[in-house]
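Pilot study result, target chain (190 residues):
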Amino acid sequence: MAMDGLIILGGIVLIVAVIGIYLWATYNALVTLNVRVDEAWSDITVQLKRRADLIPNLIETVKGYASHESQVFEQVTKARAAALGASGPAGAAEAENMMQSALKSIFAVAEAYPQLQASQNFLQLQAELVDTEDKIQASRRFYNGGVRELNTKIQLFPNTLFAKNLGFSARDFFEVEDPSAIAQAPRVQF
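Predicted structure:
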């Protein structure tokens, strides 16, 4: 009888140890994915800030040739402020739509001024902006991939039973309301 008790106790200890190891490994995996998503979001905000920093220079360059286009400049300035003030993926996505529309407007104005199109300063800003747009898209893909992994891990059974209690919740994807608005970097032809 004492041997049977030891076997049962050993079985219980083994089950508890397996559950403990599973929880430990799952918790560490969730922490890793959570940090990866935070890092990816940081990358996006860095690129959005870089783009926002380019906008005033672009406005000043275009303003030198088309000072009477104040409505376009105001629209771009408002979009820039919205982008800088956006918090979280949903807010950033909304600001992204405004920014894409504003950038299209400023490039439409620039198309009407051949001297501006030949300006070295404008061409350099244009190249930097296109490069930044490409980096934003790459950062968005990295972020959304991390969110996909984290959300999947949280929603898998049996993780779904305890992930929320451990402080993990699903994260939002960086999606925009109008995907066609950001399908490509702003088209710039001169």
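One observation from the pilot: The chain has one domain: 2-181. A full batch analysis is planned for the follow-on phase.
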